[in-house]
Amino acid sequence: MKTFKSFLVVILLSSFCFISCKESEKAPQKKSYSNTFLFLSDIHLNSFKQTTDYKVDDTGMILWNAFLQKADSVIANTSPDFIIYTGDLPSHVKDCCIPLPENERVPHNKNIETILSGLRKLATKHKKTLLYLPGNNDGIAGDYASFADENQQTPFSLIPENKNPYPVLNINPVDSITPSMVSNPEPKMGYYSARPIDGLRVIALNTVIHSANFFGADGTNQLTDAQQQMTWLKNELQDAKSRFEKVYIAMHIPPGIDAYGYQKHGTNATNWAKLPVNNPWNNQFLQIVADYQNTISGILYGHTHMDELRRLYDPSGQSITEIAISCPGVTPIHDNNPGFKLVTYHPNSKELLDFTTYYTVPSASTWGNATYNFNETFGYSGDFSMYENLMTDSLDSIHVKLNKIYTVMHNAPSYNVEPGIEVKAEQ
Questions:
Q1: Using one digit for the tens of pLDDT, what is the confidence trace for 41-70?
Q2: Residues whose CB is less than 8 angstroms from the CB of residue 136 and which lie 6 or more positions away in sequence, other chains included
Q3: What range(s) does the Calcineurin-like phosphoesterase domain occupy (predicted)?
Q4: Are 342 and 350 in contact (CB under 8 A)?
């Protein structure tokens, strides 16, 4: 088991050991490997505004263009293997969780169209596979809406492209040749799996369906849809395991506690709805991750706009099965610096090893060269994976270190981020 091997890492930190029941991917992973992917999220573009201010504005056009230029430069200089975008394209709408009035859908859709077109141009220029998955602001019908609206239209309907369609750009549709689409059973629901490189399957979930704020503009049922996705996830992991593939699970809204909401709602501030009542999706997900912990090499999410991480536990709450990392938002609406990441991973095990965050101030006309590195900031050894380093550290220690980068180097957080770190079964 993943946890058993990491326990040995603690005991024999300086030793080299062989454990037959553990596959080689959990052996110490050297930081020097150059395999990378670009991790983007939460741009929240307002194409009708030029400037951008902290805690006031979503991403204006000056910041959007500065981001595009910086991302273009990073891709050109590092040549990442692929790009992942974990949702939230347009600027925030005025009201959450209700259908967006028709007169407000025109600018909303224009923002979606502008950013999807810009990301397509960026990925196509560099011939990189780009995987997109839905955020809670991305539905045409409004914030936290189903991916399809009342007319069964999705954001992709705004930028039709038969030869190179979203949700995965620049892939080969033939499954025998990587990169390829693997499974897309419900395109109107927004979840799918794809193989961006040989040996790695990315399972892209639509966890907006699991949110307590979700509403089904398309007439479908949340409980049925979310349970269907959970069953599909399990089947995808089983299929990947049978093919000896490694898996990244990517999503927008992560499981666990919303650290920002915790100060008002305590343990009720869960990101996912506590449904079904007899076995909540949070608990089902933790069980699935525990069952396939040797197949899963990383979990990626967005939504919080901050540079944070989570440790997922098995249902007993005793063993850490996996770690999840976020991508900060480009929008500074939550009082964070705009940022995005270049993530380093092991070429064989696909385990996450490290990341570099590129950040800026929102008022700058150019992005600049400010960066920080995860292992250096946390004082971790590059000889071990992020999972191994994080699972052997204490919660108190991680909390202190996370406070340094949480707002993407824009001051200390104004609330306690510790409740969002540990993801355990709901009682």
A1: 999 999 999 999 999 999 999 999 999 999
A2: 87, 88, 143, 144, 208, 211, 213, 252, 253, 303
A3: 36-306
A4: no
Residue from 177, 167, 161 nearest 202 by CA: 167
Whole-angstrom distance, CA of residue 270 vs CA of residue 202: 25
Q: Which of 394, 401, 387 is nearest to 28 (CA)?
A: 387
- Cα–Cα distance for residue pair 208/211, rounded to 1 Å: 5
As a whole number of angstroms, the distance between CA 312 and CA 400 comes to 19
CB 181 within 8 A of CB 222: no
Residue 300 has a CB neighbour count (10 Å cut-off) of 26
136 and 155 Cβ atoms separated by less than 8 Å = no
β-pairing, 200-204 vs 191-197, is antiparallel
For residue 125, the tally of other CB atoms under 10 A from its CB is 11
pLDDT per residue over 248-292, tens digit each? 999 999 999 999 999 888 888 899 999 999 999 999 999 999 999
pLDDT per residue over 72-124, tens digit each? 999 999 999 999 999 999 999 988 999 999 999 999 999 999 999 999 999 99
Start-end of H helices in 199-317: 222-242, 259-265, 281-291
Helix 102-125 / helix 61-78 crossing angle, nearest 10 deg? 20
Enumerate residue ranges in the chain where pLDDT < 50. Answer: 3-31
Query: Can you list the domains of the chain with their CATH numbers?
Result: 28-423 (3.60.21.10)
Structure tokens at 40: 């983007």
Distance CA(159)–CA(156), nearest Å, equals 5
Beta bridge partners of 200: 197, 246
CA distance 6 to 411: 33
CA–CA dist 30, 383 (Å, integer): 5
| Integer Cα distance of 174 and 345 in angstroms | 26
204: enclosing H helix or E strand:
strand 200-204
Q: Which tokens in the block code for residue 289? A: 């991750």
| Burial class of 361 by CB neighbour count within 10 A (0 to 12, 13 to 18, 19+) | middle
Distance CA 426, CA 256 (A): 9
